[in-house]
Structures are given as C-alpha cells and as structure tokens.
Amino acid sequence: xxxxxxxxPASLERPAASSPVKPPVRxxxxxxxxxxxxxxxxxxxxxxxxxxLMMVSGGAIVGSKALLNQATGDIExxxxxxxxxxxxxxxxxxxxxxxxxxxLGVDARARWDVNDTRADTIIILHIxxxxxxxxxxxxxxDTQVQVPSFKKNGYPGGTAKATEAFFHGAQNGGGWAGGxxxxxxxxxxLTGISFDGAAIIDFNGFKGVIDALGTIxxxxxxxxxxxxxxxxxxKPTWNAQAKKMGGKxxxxxxxxxxxxxxxxxxxxxxxxxxxxxxxDYDRQRxxxxxxxAMAKKAVDTGMNNPLKLNGLIKxxxxxxxxxxxxxxxADFLFTMRGVAANDLVLLRTNNGxxxxxxxxxxxxNPLSQDMFQAVKNxxxxxxILENPTTLAKEK
Length: 395
Hints:
Elements: H1 47-54, H2 56-59, H3 65-72, E1 99-106, E2 119-127, E3 134-138, E4 144-147, E5 158-161, H4 162-170, H5 175-191, E6 197-202, H6 203-213, E7 216-220, E8 224-232, E9 235-238, H7 239-242, E10 249-254, E11 257-261, H8 263-270, H9 280-300, H10 306-317, E12 320-323, H11 329-335, E13 344-347, H12 366-376, H13 380-386
Parallel strand pairs: 1-6, 3-13
Antiparallel strand pairs: 1-2, 2-3, 4-5, 6-12, 7-11, 8-9, 8-10
Helix pairs in contact: 3-11, 4-5, 6-8, 6-10, 8-9, 12-13
C-alpha cells in the first residue's frame, strides 16, 4: 500500500465557515448568497459530480487537467467538514493516498425552512490509494448516534438518530454548513473516519441532472407504491399539491423490471422505504444504484461533447454544494480520473436488515464497525474478500 504523505499542513488548515450555506436554489427568498467569481454554472460543482459523473472512465468526459483548471480555477468552496477533516497525521494536503468523502442527501423543497432540514441519505465514498475503484457505504438514517455539542448555534449535544444530526447543526442560523459540519463530526465519532471532502446533494435538484442525461436505466426488484407522489391527469405531482387539485388521480406504482426512467421516476423510486421488505436498507441500496446508473449513462451517451456537458454542469449547479478541503478543486477531480462507472462497488451495513435496540433505533453490528475500520486503514478490498456478505445486490 502506498505510504500517505502529509496532505494538509497546519498553515493551510481552513477556518470555520463564517456564515451558513444557503440552498443552491430558493424561490421567494432574498437571503444573501455566497459570492462567487466567474462562471456560476461551475460554482457548485461537487465531489459526486466529479467523482461519479465527470471523471469516470479514465477522463473520458473531461479529458485533461488543463480543461479542469480552466473551468474550476476560481471556484469558492464552502467548509462542510469543520473539525472532521483529515489532520496532518491522517493525510494532510497531498492526494496521493486514500480519499474519503461524505455525501449527504437532503430533501429541501422551496417551501421548507432552510434550518428545518434533515439528511436522509448518508453515504461514505471511499477511494483507495490506488485510485482505481470507489466504494459506496450507506449509513442508516435511524442509526443511534452521539451528537457532539456545537458552539456555532449553541446545540448542547445528545443522543439522536443520524438523520437528526444535520437538523441540530442547521438550527438557529447554522444553515446547511452547520448541518453538514455537525453531521461530519457525528459520523467521524461513529466510524472513526476523517474526511477529505464533502458534498450536500439536494435530491430535488438531482432530477435536473438526470433529465440532462435523458433517462437512466434502473431495475425495480420489488413492487412499491410511492408515498410521495400521485399521478394527476397523467402527470407526476407531489402528494401535498395533488390533494389541492382536481382531475383524474392515480397512485404512482413502481413495478418490477428493468427500464429507462425519467428523472422524476428514478428519484421517486430511490426515495421509497415504506412498503419495502428491508425498509431503509432497500432504499440505501436503490440510491447507490441510482448514482451508479447516472455514472454509466454519462459515459454511454458520450458526455465529452462540450454542449451536452454544459447542460449537465448547469443542472448539477442547482443540485450540489461542495467542500474539497484545502485541495485545489481541479486536482481533486483529476485525481479520481481512474474511477470508472463499473468500478463503483456498493456495500451495505448490518447485512442489509434492521438491527435495532430497545428504542427502535439502528445499531451498527460488529461486522459493520470492522468495515469502517477497514476504510480507515485503506484495507477495504481485503475486507470484502473475507466478508462477501457486505456486498449489496446490484439489481
């Protein structure tokens, strides 16, 4: 295994964010947004977009570091990690070693308060020091965690579900930055993993990314009725809105089988957990499949076309918020050029089934804790060979 070199000298440590991050797009709001220089469509280019979409298949989409430098040279990133970023001893600034990213999915509809947001999707993306593979590990939203105190907004700390850590950090003006920072510290305490970068994914904005790709191929493994959407006169509509409308109403039912899905359908399917055999574990797996399907489609449709790429980037700018630590964004993305769509390995905790305590909250079993230790030690490949049951079913 390559020896890690210091990656983040003390002189380059980032100060804590001075103001909360606002969601990428909001209607009917006049709140001040972070100032960004130059091309706004690149302003929220993210780790997921770079690692999973742009840089797949050996740079087939972007092609060269020079182009990346030109596109990302003046991006201002936001501190989403706080004290959960890697220290000198854990890696520092160089990107030669393993890379660990925290991906947080939020449901932030325009009508909802920014501070009243939870992270229902929590994924650790691990790239080994060889930089030729990527592993996605989902943490159950209802996992019992010890949330540390947070000086930024006065939260005293306490026992909570993992999804609630983001909420507690976002309260009292903490915003998305506060939510992500408290979540990152909570996950670090839970797993022992420090992070090189983080991204917040607004799953409602994610629809535009899929639409820019056209459709993506998803396989439904068990029929499920949507708890979020209703067809009104043949058009998918949020339930809250559908209740106020007239017209012919039919349930949205995702039937078993593989097919090309539009953005709304793929996202709605990947967000279901009620009515599935393994509840949130099945949803975690479907969301991992969604990310992998997007990566495959990006390559299959030839997103090296500048015009197509332009549209994809614009859509991504509405869906993501990024933190690449103190590393240059272009360097960060270029480092992951060897990770192809087929190199994304989907993993599961607790053997993909509920493992709870007397309070009905998830508790990570010893094997899952060993898996996170393998991530920290960059020995995940070996761990999977010895524990193949941690692999998630692809279809």
